[in-house]
Specification:
Shape: globular
Strand content: 25-35%
Order of helices and strands: EEEHEEEEHEHEHEHEHEHEHHEHE
Number of strands: 15
């Protein structure tokens, strides 16, 4: 088969479409013929040499895919050759085939183009696990989403609105904020021109956000705590703004607030399977009914993964960037 390899870390040009051995499904795995994969920030970090795959994972980038089951490995039940699926991966999505633990498979939702389904596994698992399973966002509460126009952001807006929450977003510029508004965002904050703490305070009569979903990390830590409501929950899922920041514990105590920080890629298989099962139970019906949908900025041939990385690093996209294999045609 062919896959995107990284012979040496570097810029987008480090991604090489090359012939590699076919994967073989092990105990509890299926082999998926990949139709599409999606580009994530973690892929960029892996290409740069900063985020190696966990032990035993495929060396190729790609944390999600969609395709068809080509082979069912030993010990797998409930799935058959030919099933159209999408999957959460620890790696290997930028390839024509990938071996996937059965617990990380999802059926392609009703009404979704099979190739577009690659836009769903990582964002739905990340948002549902952090915003709902950990931070317990409830109807009537306010969620602040940093990076509202990103893949994570566009899904967080939709899911929060679907359960009856109020949504505030930060994004760069009026065009991205307009797209967030189309998806249901109620409070629109241009982080380039406005202070999100002040704007959120104005919009909530000083109450703040009950839950904050943060991809920035250290740079926003102090202001995120200021933006939290009493009993608020800050869920950190990214470190684009650094790894070390000052934390005012007094402010956290006064607000009886909580901070959590999670990653998805390196979790044990059982934890991933539990998250995927929750997504199938709670999110898939919303997608099937059209209440929630995948937001795809553009598609590119998988052999042109370098250009897809350039798009992601330029931050000009809204939603997900997908890579299509020859099997998609």
């Amino acid at each position: 088969m062919h896959a995107i390899t990284i012979p040496a870390p570097g810029g987008p040009e480090a991604l090489v479409w090359a012939e590699v051995p076919d994967p073989v499904p092990g105990e509890g795995e299926v082999l998926v013929e990949v139709v599409s994969s999606a580009v994530n920030r973690a892929d960029v970090l892996q290409r740069q040499g900063f985020y190696n795959p966990p032990p035993g994972a495929s060396p190729y980038p790609g944390l999600e895919c969609a395709g068809r089951i080509a082979e069912v490995g030993p010990g797998v039940t409930g799935w058959s050759v030919g099933d159209e699926v999408c999957a959460l991966l620890a790696g290997g999505g930028y390839a024509e085939k990938v071996a996937v633990p059965a617990g990380q498979l999802l059926p392609v939702p009703d009404g979704v183009d099979p190739a577009m389904a690659a836009a769903l596994p990582e964002v739905t698992a990340t948002v549902w696990s952090n915003v709902f399973m950990v931070a317990h966002l409830r109807p009537g509460e306010t969620l602040l989403v940093h990076g509202g126009s990103s893949g994570i952001g566009t899904m967080a807006i939709q899911l929060a609105k679907a359960v009856g929450a109020r949504v505030a977003v930060t994004a760069g510029g009026p065009e991205k904020l307009a797209r967030c508004a189309e998806l249901g965002a109620d409070i629109l904050i241009d982080y380039r021109e406005q202070d999100f703490v002040e704007e959120l305070s104005k919009a909530t009569d000083g109450a703040g956000a009950d839950v904050i979903l943060d991809i920035v990390g250290a740079k926003y830590l102090d202001r995120n705590v200021k933006a939290l409501a009493v009993n608020g929950r800050l869920a950190i899922i990214g470190l684009q703004g650094g790894v070390k920041g000052d934390l005012n514990l007094g402010a956290l105590l006064n607000k009886r607030a909580a901070i959590t920080a999670t990653s998805l890629r390196g979790r044990p298989l059982a934890e991933k399977a539990a998250i995927v099962a929750a997504v199938r139970e709670h999110v898939w019906p919303l997608i099937g009914s059209g209440v929630v949908r995948p937001i795809v900025d553009r598609t590119l041939p998988m052999s042109d993964a370098a250009e897809a990385h350039r798009v992601l690093e330029s931050s000009t996209h809204v939603g997900k960037v997908l890579l299509l294999t020859p099997a998609a045609s």
